[in-house]
Amino acid sequence: MAINGVNDNPYAFLNSTNNSTAKDEERDPGKLQMEDFMSLMTTQLMNQDPLKPMESGDFLGQIASFSTVSGISDLQDSFASFAKAMQSDQALQGSSLVGRSVMVPSSIGVMTPDSPMRGQINVAEPVSNLEIKIYSANGELVRTIPMGPASGYTNFEWDGLNNDGEALPEGVYQFMATGSVNGQNTAFPTAVVAKVDSVLVGSGGQGLTINLAGIGSVPFSEVQEII
């Protein structure tokens, strides 16, 4: 029995349907919307104990709690969409690196007859006798290149010849840069120029990983220069 147009069942709205609102049919049935929340709150107020009415602070607190949860959910959805867009952008940028050369921190490099091994030395303190030593894959010293006085970032290039002026076979070689600092022989950080063979787009915020010829996989964050 209804009194003054109010249904005896205060929860009847939960099972009611309205053909004029297509949006209600399209939204997720498992997700509580703001309209549903307000309807529940209204029903709660209509059926509360008159001797113990809901405090206004409790009422506002429930609304604030729902708004906070709803806001966090919307923010998470926005971040998820942003992450997908960033990943697609990374994939596009990564594809443009394939075939190009980059400079990365390394003590190994690739030498070919058409492309000498190039790199850079970070000479933290000025030295007067900087030199580079090139080693073969089995650890044999094949070339010593005197660089003379140096300070700061110093570029170098190896033409693939050994100490006797003979051409060595192409392949992967190791190198080391040293110089005397305060009378002590000191090794300096080195970087090498390498060709990008492929790019891997990571998941879970891992970012790009580039595969370099002769060196292997290196995080894109370690790239010092794109050549």
Automatic annotation (TrEMBL):
Task: Give the record's family classification.
Answer: Belongs to the FlgD family.
Alphabetized, the UniProt keywords read:
Bacterial flagellum biogenesis
Every FlgD/Vpr Ig-like domain range: 114-180
* Gene Ontology biological process terms in this record: bacterial-type flagellum organization
Functional description taken from the UniProt entry: Required for flagellar hook formation. May act as a scaffolding protein.
Outline the extent of the FlgD Tudor-like domain. 89-224
Q: What is the lineage of its organism?
A: Bacteria, Pseudomonadati, Pseudomonadota, Gammaproteobacteria, Thiotrichales
Protein name, as recorded? Basal-body rod modification protein FlgD
Residues annotated as region Disordered?
1-30
Q: Does the keyword Phosphoprotein apply?
A: no
**Gene3D superfamilies, per this entry?**
2.30.30.910, 2.60.40.4070
Q: Which InterPro entries match?
A: FlgD, FlgD/Vpr_Ig-like, FLgD_Tudor
Keyword Mitochondrion assigned: no
